[in-house]
Predict the structure.
Amino acid sequence: MLCTGLSVFFSAWVMNCKFAISVPVGTYHPLLRDCLNSLAGQDPCPQVALLDASDDARVTAIADEFNAILSYRRHGPDAGQSDAIIEGWRNLDGDILGWLNADDALYPQAIAQVSARFQATPCAGVVYGHSSIVNDDGWFTGYHWAVEPPNNRLLAGDIISQPSCFFRRGAYEAIGGLDAALHYTMDWDLWVRLWRAGVEFSFIDDVLSRVLWTREAKTGGLGASRRQELERIIGQNTSASLVRRLKTRIGFGLNHAFEYMMPDRLARPIRQRLAPACAPINGLGRNGEIAVMARLPLLHYDDEPRRCVEAIFTYDATRIAVKIEGREGEVFVDGAVARVELSTPLKAGEIARLILVNDSAKPVCLSHVVLR
């Protein structure tokens, strides 16, 4: 372990540490403003490096808008995403590192939660949590279901959601840093090397980031280049049996098919039969099942406030009790749709915690949630 036992020293260090966040931009994405908004609203505010290889005037305009929070910015070509991320950290002096893609966003107080965890666990070199998932329409569709507390399964599959993961610079540098030659699996490769080096991982059972899950996502594809990178990491896991490594390969293939190739109405029933069960997150199952109660943290970063929350179920919604935690609102149920009209509009950067309670003996399945 990298912990020296000098807990008092490390606790004081963590209280004064700074976060360094790289934001690589390959092409313009309309969620870039959300990404930077989410960083601007953090307390403590992190150092931010914007690495823009897009040659797009829209990215430059957004960077100008958020220039006050940018400790470093570069507009021009680079050698790829990993190279850009490294460049950002190299030009920041923060002690805790992380990165967000242009379509990622942090939840309010994410940095504060992570900072507090580093302070409470001075031996930890990596702190991570959950991510919520939205689709191209901005609908909340669930969570990053692969995320688990720290365990050896990290060697067989990536159980960490990268936008919700932060790590100490010292631990990062000790294992050689990010591999700039990797373009698809650099995050999993980094976690594996930190794990093998004996770095302590600490898990926060809360949502720290919002991730866009789109069929065009680079990390979701199974092209030749990504398969080669995956095979490199899987092949290095010599402690696993050949059967275990084969299951890992099959798992990546099934995930690609379920998430990126099949329509949801077909993927759900097949996944229920074939995919391994995973623990519910905040009471929500992988296929939208609500056995008792689900608690869903929703947010947006648009200028226009949201006045309505709609929960759409796969079948009848009348068995579900709906409310927004800590907020007044009138509830309407019509078939498979439960709608909450908010008395006070939801502003950018605020969280609406949607509570769904199943009063029946049978699980009810949520399809998605929309903020209007």
Summary: The chain has ten helices and 17 strands. The CA atoms of residues 97 and 194 lie 14 Å apart. The radius of gyration is 21 Å.
